[in-house]
Amino acid sequence: MKTRGLNQDGLELVTWTRSVLVPNRASGLGQDYFPACTAGPLEA
């Protein structure tokens, strides 16, 4: 994955390449990460 940092003028100041590990469903990592909502859906 390539990541880059831009300044307020949109000029690229820094870039780097990084790796990402994504767990699969069987590993159980990340399951139930978000707490249950106690209120109803947001109203516009």
Describe this entry's structure for a reader:
It contains no helices and two strands. The model has no long low-confidence stretch (mean pLDDT 84). It has a two-stranded antiparallel sheet. With 44 residues, the protein is mainly β. It has strands at residues 2-6, 12-17. The radius of gyration is 18 Å and the shape is flat.
Strand percent estimate = 25-35%
Mean pLDDT: 84
Rough shape?
Answer: flat
Helix content: under 10%
Provide a quick synopsis of the model.
With 44 residues, this protein is mainly beta.
Key traits:
44 residues, mainly beta
List the topology elements.
Elements: E1 2-6, E2 12-17
Antiparallel strand pairs: 1-2
